[in-house]
Design goal:
single chain
Length: 160
């Protein structure tokens, strides 16, 4: 799962989606993190997410990019875990919340690195785009979760 997560990050790196606003991307690796959260639990999802961030940093990133990824990834996973635990959302809603919160974590790092509060003007578009991209990734993860729960041996999946 970590290799797939990293591969999706690499795909986004080599084929960037640039709608003209810095920070907007699909977050394809979130498909794996969301699926891992549902199939294997929070500790495994956190490990997969962290390993992907470190590999991305070491292979094609910068330390500042790693800080952005770490802040966004940690807050996103926390939001997803809390929403999943509440039991009110499907993986689509859980992932949408994660996408929106991921961008807010990155804005926090941008604020700290630039020393200006002007970055908050990006918040509305990043909340909307993060939520939309998260919902899209969540829909893909939902399909994967459904398929794997019906075909994978139970001993490798988290009991739920």
């Amino acid at each position: 799962m970590t290799a797939l997560c990293f591969g999706l990050s690499y795909l986004e790196f080599v084929i960037p989606l640039s709608p003209g606003v810095p920070g907007i991307k699909l977050g394809l690796a979130n498909v794996c993190v969301t699926a891992a959260l549902y199939l294997f639990g929070l500790p495994m999802a956190a490990g997969i997410n962290f390993a992907r961030m470190v590999l991305s940093w070491l292979i094609f990133g910068s330390f500042s990019g790693f800080l952005y990824s770490l802040a966004g990834g940690a807050l996103s996973l926390a939001a997803m875990a809390l929403n999943k635990r509440a039991g009110k959302c499907t993986p689509i809603g859980v992932s949408a919340a994660g996408g929106a919160v991921h961008n807010m974590g990155q804005l926090l790092v941008a604020r700290l690195m630039t020393g200006t509060g002007a970055v908050v003007y990006y918040a509305p578009i990043l909340l909307i785009s993060g939520g939309a991209a998260g919902a899209l990734c969540g829909a893909v993860a939902f399909k994967i979760i459904s398929r794997l729960r019906h075909s994978a041996p139970e001993k490798i999946l988290k009991k739920r």
